[in-house]
TrEMBL record, chain A:
The keyword Oxidoreductase applies. Residues 516-597 form the SoxA A3 domain. Residues 614-882 form the GCVT N-terminal domain. Residues 171-434 form the FAD/NAD(P)-binding domain. It comes from the Bacteria. PANTHER family: AMINOMETHYLTRANSFERASE, AMINOMETHYLTRANSFERASE, MITOCHONDRIAL. This is Sarcosine oxidase subunit alpha family protein. GO terms for molecular function: sarcosine oxidase activity.
UniProtKB/TrEMBL annotation, chain B:
It comes from Gluconacetobacter asukensis. Coiled coil: none annotated. It holds the Pfam family SoxG. This is Sarcosine oxidase gamma subunit. InterPro entries: SoxG (IPR007375), TrmE/GcvT-like (IPR027266).
TrEMBL record, chain C:
One of its GO terms (biological process) is tetrahydrofolate metabolic process. It comes from Gluconacetobacter asukensis. This is Sarcosine oxidase subunit delta. Pfam families: SoxD. GO terms for molecular function: sarcosine oxidase activity.
Length: 997, 174, 93
């Protein structure tokens, strides 16, 4: 047997399979089935970590997920995971684990000096102590605090593992696989329900795994668990998930489970996900979350070697580990007596049982006495001694009036504490279930819930094993709608304990409550909580935030009830008048990897590629993200930077022709007898007179009168429009159309279909566009006379169906060739080949932006910000004056939307033609305006224009159209303010002669 | 078909004609009749006639996968009633997902309950496959016809493969 | 994640839906006063309790519909089609 504290013949570990791992660089020997904590305890090591704020030496308090102290880092490189509970981490051969928050070593930690400074670090110290001198915060205080405080470090390497997410559905979800959960799952499963049972531990059984006393149907508890699990596994409608924590209970019975699949394996199978999140939608939920033993609050209660009584029992029976040689038990509850008896039976010395109750009695107490264990009634623990390990404790008598007398010091290497059991209400509370205070038990219990949920067993205050099993069966049957369930007889059990304690233990004198910890993980002491109340915090929610009690990753599992009791005592109000803080998910920490699931790397978001993406890549294009789309931004040739490439592309479009993949434009087919009427109501423009075969620029406002989207609309037939939207506005416009159609105008016979991805769009723009296209369009006459600007024709191009728009976003003669997406590349290739002789040039989104800015064409979302009217952006001409109503009409008549000082779209020229303004620059009246300045406007678009061989910009300026020819200044961060002149925003070809060529 | 997990194969569907018919009940009736159906299928169900299959995606909407003859007859059948008929053959791409674990793969991406009792053979619906809008049609107990908009195809295919990678380690069958 | 009972498709997960704000807000005629129009645009009840609200099954059948939801608990009391009156909950809520 390895480990001096390992007890032969005890525990469920597999002693035939030794496992060697490293902790802080040292080899540790354990066995298959051990946790890091049990293996270290087997070597007599309690010291496993340093605390968050004071760097206090700490050892495990618990043996499960409620552990606040023994937080370790596990794994190496990208697989390193910080802040894992050593009490839950299962060891495997070769595992590398490290302690945290210590420097240079766990035994000697320089930061422990913080303890000496504890009087300077009371609750809310960061609000008080570090306020002066002011400049010190950034440079001195914060870096110091950040270095001193904290838990594990975050890994920096990419996570090499993959994580899974699954949705699941069931009739009954049972959270917790202890006696209540097993009983509920079997009852529901036998009733035919689809059942999922999850348990956070490696195996089901819960408290039964450490109960060596009780007998069910004459069987030891462990054997009964094996039998029940086997029965559950035989039921095809029941799924058992172990190492699987229910960590979030969302609305409408959506419960999230986190299943750890590989962390306990030395050699996980290839492709096995490391963790999986189950999003379970359950018709009914049974919470069988159990109860957690409470710590006691006394001076020095955080010394390594001080732990919960139930934890020592777990280490003994699960792992065959004696947590010490000589124990003191401090309790207010009968259950700790059973632990003392178990320890004594295993050969450990129990020096004394200090019972806070004046006259403990009953069979367990008598059994302890009979075994020769000294039972001290009405006795408290005044303080614990020791540093890296507890060495003794002063046990002192509590008088009838509550005063504490002089005590005696008892040496020991283990102090076991039991303040009674707190029902685990986290999931019930997350589901917004009410809580009610139970006077008899002195704890909160689950109250009413709006969800279809029921609690069973000790999480609702039912503690006797026979009652728990009956409660579980009843809950399972009720959830599944079953009639009869399994019946078991508990043939031997302890009566559930009475008593329990919450708050600070009675003590003699003022004591040093600065070292009596309430929340171990956040280093919150009883003194901190009292101070908060004295300073005027009355709400428990405020006390929580001020002191941070209950805000650590353990979610106050061990601390909430003690903090509540302290506040209750100081205020002299009953606990139920104070209430409990809201429990927040997750129940236990969940890794980022698990949350990310499949959504990582390239798969984080859908990457939408336009039809000619592969061609653009082959041409060496540089891309940019536009929403989910990836679009070609420019096509650099050898030796070109972005500015050179964009300038060349722009010049090519103005001189010859350019070709551009405009497929991402949103497209909607509006069809039906009332299509024109719908368009009239939806757009600010008038559509009735738009002939078939023609198109028009359309502008969409909201009913607020503000511009929402724009795009060219073509009339395919009397009852059919081909609508285009901006790339980013496609989904929003369709949704808005459906909204008005379904809810305001359901009488209209018109229907909408998204055709964005049905039609690819090849924009061919430039003075030679017609020459290139004409031979390709299968006899269609596209001459200037036959197909003028803003005409629309249906035809074929090389036999491929085509909707051809003569439109321009460049100011040049241009076409947008719409063809079915699957054939777009073939058509593009034909156009490309036909254009080669002319010098046809591909251009990207950057040149597209420059070309449109030269023409003063608006981009919705760039010039507009959701508060611009059509008039503001120079589009009053588009707004129908005669339609009785359209979306935005009433608002556009509001005086505020017609005020003369509204921001209006103007062109802006710098004095220096080489200087390109920054987009977003503010414009102010004078170069030396005093601070604070009020802006007259701001720059929305700014480029170097190859056509004008100078910089150009578009700005929104108060009353801008009336200020043409005047100057403003653009203050700059890194130089003098730039003087600019306001001009007409159409910089190039203002007559539009080139459009109609 | 490519096996992406034990008991699950994935294939891209060949190009096919897809038509969206929208209108009031008379229009859907006319469309159904032209395919040789007595009536349009009820919500979220598919009906197949000699002229093709009609997928009832909305109360006023059918997606029709016609045969060659079925396509020809639709225009005439719909002409007398107000309607919208729009071809979206190239808007969507289709996948065929088959095998005992096919439903599990979908459950890795979609919050629907794929138990046969909840999602029977012949059911169709639009939904989400992770972050992509999708249409799922159960053509057989272990066979699904999945469609997404063209540009979402590579994303959804990669997501299905990613789920497949870990699916054999999943105990839970949905 | 809420479970929303689309009147056309049945119960579906919330991610298939888009929220549409308070229901039964009629769009006034274009000749109403500025005050009335502004109220239509911007004034909402911010109900604590049962709220009639709009949802769209945007990743499903595409239809808008109304629901009665208790904003304190997220529990739904009714789902009903656009154009039908708000169901009378009696004294229940």
């Amino acid at each position: 047997m390895s480990g001096a504290f390992r007890l032969a013949g005890r525990g469920c570990i597999d002693t035939t399979r030794p496992v060697v791992f490293r902790f802080d660089g040292q080899m540790v020997r354990g066995y298959a089935g051990d946790t890091v904590a049990s293996a270290l305890l087997a070597e007599g090591r309690h010291l496993m970590g340093r605390s968050f704020k004071y760097h206090r030496p700490r050892g495990p308090v618990s043996a499960g997920s409620d552990e606040p102290n023994a937080l370790i880092g596990v794994g190496e490189g990208g697989r390193y995971t910080p802040n894992l509970r050593a009490t839950q981490v299962e060891i495997y051969g070769g595992m590398v684990a490290v302690s945290q928050n210590r420097a240079p070593s766990l035994r000697f930690d320089i930061g422990a000096l913080n303890t000496l400074a504890a009087p300077l670090l009371p609750a809310g110290f960061y609000y008080k102590t570090f306020m002066w001198p002011r400049g010190f915060w950034d440079k001195v205080y914060e870096p110091l605090i950040r270095r001193a405080a904290g838990l594990g470090r975050a890994p920096t390497a990419p996570d090499p593992d993959h994580y899974a997410l699954h949705y699941a559905h069931c009739d009954v979800l049972v959270a917790g696989g202890g006696p209540a959960g097993l009983a509920a799952a079997l009852a529901a499963g036998q009733a035919g329900a689809r059942v999922i049972l999850c348990d956070e531990n490696a195996e089901c059984g819960g408290s039964l795994l450490t109960d060596t006393y009780s007998l069910i149907d004459g069987l030891p508890c462990g054997e009964w668990v094996v039998r029940i699990v086997a029965e559950l596994q035989r039921l095809p409608n029941v799924q058992l998930l172990t190492r699987c924590s229910a960590f979030n209970y969302g609305p409408h019975n959506m419960v999230a489970l986190n299943q750890r699949l590989t962390d306990h394996l030395a050699m996980p199978p290839t492709d096995m996900p490391r963790e999986r999140i189950w999003q379970v939608r359950a018709r009914e939920v049974v919470l069988a979350a159990g109860a957690l033993e409470r710590v006691l609050v006394f001076e020095g209660n955080d010394r390594p070697g001080i732990m919960l009584a139930s934890a020592a029992r777990t280490y003994l029976h699960r792992y065959g580990v004696a947590c010490g040689r000589k124990a003191i038990v401090v309790t207010a509850d009968d259950a700790a007596y059973r632990v003392a008896l178990d320890l004594a039976e295993a050969g450990m010395k129990v020096a004394a049982i200090a019972d806070l109750r004046p006259a403990p009695g009953g069979p367990l107490v008598e059994a302890a006495r009979a075994r020769g264990i000294e039972v001290l009634p009405a006795t408290t623990i005044q303080r614990a001694h020791g540093h890296l390990r507890v060495t003794g404790a002063e046990l002192a008598p509590v008088g009838a009036d509550g005063t504490v007398g002089k005590g005696r010091t008892v040496s020991c290497d283990l102090v076991l504490m039991s303040g009674g059991f707190t029902p685990s209400l986290h999931l019930h509370s997350q589901a917004r279930g009410a809580l009610r205070f139970d006077d008899a038990l002195g704890v909160y219990l689950p109250g009413e819930s709006i969800e279809r949920v029921r609690s069973a067993g000790s999480c609702r205050g039912v503690f006797a094993l026979d009652d728990v099993l009956r409660d579980g069966v009843a809950a399972g049957l009720a959830a599944a709608g079953g009639e009869t369930g399994p019946v078991w007889t508990v043939t031997r059990q302890d009566a559930p304990g009475t008593g329990g304690f919450a708050g600070v233990l009675p003590r003699r004198g003022p004591g040093h409550l600065a070292l009596a910890f309430v929340d171990f993980q956040n280093d919150v002491t009883a003194k901190d909580v009292k101070l908060a109340v004295r300073e005027g915090f009355r709400s428990i929610e405020h006390v929580k935030r001020y002191t941070t009690t209950g805000m650590a990753t353990d979610q106050g599992k061990g601390s909430n009830v003690n903090a509540l009791a302290i506040v209750s005592n100081v205020l002299g109000r009953r606990p139920e008048e104070i209430g409990l803080t809201t429990y927040r998910p997750p129940y236990t920490p969940v890794t980022f990897g698990a949350f990310a699931g499949h959504a990582r790397g390239d798969q984080f978001d859908p990457l939408r590629l336009p039809p000619m993406d592969a061609w653009a890549r082959a041409q060496g294009a540089v891309f940019e993200d536009v929403g989910l789309w990836r679009r070609a931004r420019y096509f650099p040739r050898a030796g070109e930077d972005m500015a050179m490439a964009v300038a060349r592309e722009c010049r090519a479009v103005r001189a010859v022709a350019g070709i551009f993949d405009a497929s991402t434009l949103g497209k909607i087919e509006v069809a039906g007898p009332d299509a024109a009427e719908f368009m009239n109501r939806f757009y600010v423009n008038a559509w009735t007179k738009l002939g078939v075969g023609k198109c028009r620029y359309g502008l969409v406002c909201r009913d607020s009168g503000f511009v929402y989207d724009d795009g060219v609309v073509g009339r395919i037939a009397a009852d059919r429009f081909h609508v285009t939207t901006t790339t980013g506005g496609a989904a929003g416009v369709l949704n808005m159309m459906e909204d008005y159609l379904q809810t305001e105008w359901p009488d209209l016979d018109v229907w909408l279909t998204s055709i964005t991805e049905q039609w690819a769009v090849i924009a061919l723009q430039g003075p030679r566009a017609r020459d290139i296209l004409a031979p390709l369009v299968d006899g269609l006459d596209i001459s200037a006379g036959a197909m003028p600007h803003m005409a629309l024709r249906e035809g074929t191009i090389g036999g491929v169906p085509m909707r051809l728009f003569r439109v321009s976003f460049t100011g040049e003669l241009g076409y947008e060739i719409n063809v079915p997406s699957s054939q777009a590349q073939a058509v593009w290739d034909r156009v490309w080949q036909a254009g080669a002789a002319f010098g046809l040039t591909p251009y990207g989104t950057e040149a597209m932006h420059v070309l449109r800015a030269e023409k003063g064409y608006l981009i919705v979302g760039q010039e507009t910000d959701g508060t611009m009217t059509p008039g503001d952006v120079g589009c009053s001409w588009a707004v129908s004056k005669v339609k009785p109503d359209f979306i935005g009409k009433r608002a556009l008549a509001l005086p505020a939307l017609n005020a003369p000082d509204r921001l209006q779209m103007v062109g802006v020229l710098t004095d220096d033609p080489r200087l390109v303004l920054e987009e977003g620059m503010q414009l102010v009246p004078a170069a030396d305006s005093p601070m604070p300045m009020s802006a007259e406007g701001h720059v929305t678009s700014s480029y170097f224009s190859p056509a004008l061989d100078r910089s150009i910009a578009i700005a929104m300026v108060k009353g801008g159209r009336g200020r043409m020819g005047t100057s403003l200044y653009a203050p700059s961060l890194d130089g003098p303010a730039v003087k600019v002149m306001l001009v007409d925003p159409v910089f190039y070809d203002p007559e539009g002669a080139r459009l109609n060529g | 078909m490519v096996e992406i997990a034990e008991g699950c194969a994935l294939a891209g569907l060949p190009p096919m004609v897809r038509l969206v018919v929208q209108g009031r009940p008379a229009a859907l009736d006319a469309a159904a009749a032209s395919l040789g159906l007595d009536a349009p299928p009820p919500m979220l169900r598919v009906a197949s006639g000699v002229g093709g299959s009609a997928l009832r995606l909305g109360p006023f909407e059918l997606l029709i996968l016609p045969t060659l003859e079925g396509r020809a007859g639709l225009d005439a059948a719909l002409a007398p009633v107000p309607h919208s008929l729009v071809e979206v053959s190239d808007r969507n791409v289709g996948f065929l997902l088959e095998g005992a674990r096919a439903a599990d793969i979908l459950a890795g991406l979609c919050p629907l309950d794929f138990a046969l009792s909840s999602f029977p053979v012949g059911m169709v619906t639009r939904t989400l496959l992770d972050k992509a809008g999708a249409m799922i049609w159960r053509t057989d107990a272990h066979s699904f016809h999945v469609e997404v908009w063209r540009s979402f195809g590579p994303y959804v295919e990669a997501q299905m493969r990613e789920v497949a990678k870990g699916i054999s380690f999943s105990l839970l069958t949905v | 994640m809420l479970l929303i009972d689309c009147p056309y498709c049945g119960p579906r997960a919330e991610i298939e839906f888009a929220y549409g704000g308070e229901a039964h807000i009629a769009r006034p005629a274009a000749d109403v006063s500025e005050v009335e129009w502004s109220a239509f645009l911007y004034l909402r009840d911010n109900t604590k309790g049962v709220l009639a609200e709009r949802w769209r099954h945007s990743h499903g059948c595409g239809r808008f519909f109304n629901a009665l939801r208790d904003t304190r608990t997220d529990q739904f009391h009714a789902f009903y089609e656009i154009g039908t009156p708000r169901p009378d909950m009696g004294g229940a809520v």
